[in-house]
């Protein structure tokens, strides 16, 4: 058995989980998320917990078992606490500023870059070089943060660019003069 997949998922107070066949919907104080469980895997409600089971030991069933349990657990965490991803802008003249719900970057290009948040995602800007992506869907928060980082990846010679908070950029020596 999968060590992760067989663990029961506790449902905290204030969270409502509904299972209708293969559809799992989680409703909490921060919002509502839903998931369609892949076909051989089954989710059941039992005494304030969600149990994820698999019918057999086929390779596909084993690989989906732990994944499904983790996805449901992430949804429960999302509707109670939410997810955040921090980004730092490093470089001379590189900055970010809030323009309503959108954000505008100056990243050394000839034009400013405006990013508008998708549904369920919000941005908070601290100073002019720190940005936080906030939302209840872990996958959406990570994807938006990755797309923002992709605007100007950190380069290895000076370390300029958009990086995750706490990310270590490997630096190269560059040319050596005579």
From TrEMBL:
Record InterPro entries: Ribosomal_uL6-like, Ribosomal_uL6-like_a/b-dom_sf, Ribosomal_uL6_a/b-dom, Ribosomal_uL6_bac-type, Ribosomal_uL6_CS
Pfam families: Ribosomal_L6 (PF00347)
GO CC term, one of those recorded: ribosome
Superkingdom of origin organism: Bacteria
Record key words, sorted: Ribonucleoprotein, Ribosomal protein, RNA-binding, rRNA-binding
Residue ranges annotated for the Large ribosomal subunit protein uL6 alpha-beta domain, each copy included: 11-82, 90-164
Known role: This protein binds to the 23S rRNA, and is important in its secondary structure. It is located near the subunit interface in the base of the L7/L12 stalk, and near the tRNA binding site of the peptidyltransferase center.
UniProt record similarity statement: Belongs to the universal ribosomal protein uL6 family.
Subunit structure: Part of the 50S ribosomal subunit.
Protein name: Large ribosomal subunit protein uL6
């Amino acid at each position: 058995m999968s060590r992760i997949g067989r663990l029961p998922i506790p449902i905290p107070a204030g969270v409502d989980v509904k299972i209708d066949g293969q559809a799992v919907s989680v409703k909490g104080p921060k919002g509502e998320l839903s998931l369609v469980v892949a076909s051989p895997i089954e989710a059941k409600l039992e005494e304030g917990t969600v149990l994820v089971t698999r019918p057999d030991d086929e390779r596909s069933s084993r690989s989906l078992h732990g994944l499904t349990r983790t996805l449901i657990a992430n949804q429960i965490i999302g509707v109670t606490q939410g997810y955040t991803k921090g980004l730092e802008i490093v470089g001379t003249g590189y900055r970010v500023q809030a323009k309503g719900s959108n954000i505008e970057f100056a990243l050394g290009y000839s034009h400013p870059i405006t990013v508008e948040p998708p549904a369920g995602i919000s941005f908070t800007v601290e100073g002019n070089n720190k940005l936080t992506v906030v939302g209840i869907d872990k996958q959406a928060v990570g994807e938006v943060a990755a797309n923002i980082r992709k605007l100007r990846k950190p380069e290895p010679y000076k370390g300029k660019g958009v990086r995750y908070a706490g990310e270590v950029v490997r630096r190269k020596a560059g040319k050596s003069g005579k």
